Amino acid sequence: MKRREFIAVLGGAAAWPFAARTQQAAMPLIGFLSSRSRDDSSRMLNGFHRGLADAGLGEGRNIAVDYRFAEGHYERLAPLAAELANRPIAVLVAAGGEPAARAAMAATTTTPVVVIFGSDPVANHLVDSLSHPGHNLTGVSVLSASIEPKRISLMHDLLPQAKVFGALLNPSTPTYAEQLRDIATAASAIGIEVKPFLVGNDAELETAFEAAARTEIHALLASADPFLVFRRSKIAELAVKAHMPVMYPYRDFPEAGGLMSYGIDLADAYRQLALYAGRIIRGDKPQDLPVVEPTKFEFVINLKAVKALGLSIPAGILAIADEVIE
After folding, report:
1. Dmax over Cα atoms in the chain, in whole Å?
2. How far apart are CA 283 and CA 288, in angstroms?
3. What pTM did the predictor assign?
4. Residues 285 and 212 in one domain
5. Does 216 lie in the same domain as 173?
6. Using CA atoms, how far apart are residues 180 and 196, in angstroms rounded to an integer?
């Protein structure tokens, strides 16, 4: 090979990584923030990737995603959100509960943001309205007026003589007072008293189960909080140890050994996040995309937990379950 040809080839080879980087940099970038961990979110991430596919997008093909996981530590969310907001992202997606949503909203007022709302976004002045959110924001609401009455009704059907339920709530979550109000209102409608147990760390969680077992509490209701989701296996163990039936908000809990859950299909909510991210990348403005309200709910029972707790599930409850884990 002649010297001039060799230099040309060498120069071309040196340019290949640069060309590849340029092509990769040209890919729209989604920033993804979560209160949970990556392993903890595998089912939901599958839903997110299904949503990307439905939007004609594929990670590594025509879209890039930069992930940040707080792994249950809320104090990490603000700096992680700031890291993503300082990158050249086309849209910031926040999942894993209200703390992640608020961290993303605080991180930027210009980059489009798509979040999961764990509270009423209108009442809390996060959006102008559900149909026209305004600002740089839209998302998916996991709030439904039917959820708490249904959860309490199912637990009451299981324990018809029960008069007092406890509620596991994380005081570090911005919506915990709202969660307690919704639970207490729904319980009061059928003559059930609710006693709150505030749990923000592992020690308080263990103390709550010990206290509930010593009192007139007949069952516990776990709130929809990433702190509790992250510790779902531990909670299932504590429930069996205390002989305490617990109703959970998501299927993650009975899959980890918990008794039963009723709530929205989280994987479908993550799919909707990706669909909205795709629409924004293609030119839609977040403020013009209505907040999506939940339409898919699921009731899951774990029969192994039923046996461990010494319970008997009425045939009528089993008949309406979307899934029974053997």
Report:
1. 93
2. 11
3. 0.83
4. no
5. yes
6. 7
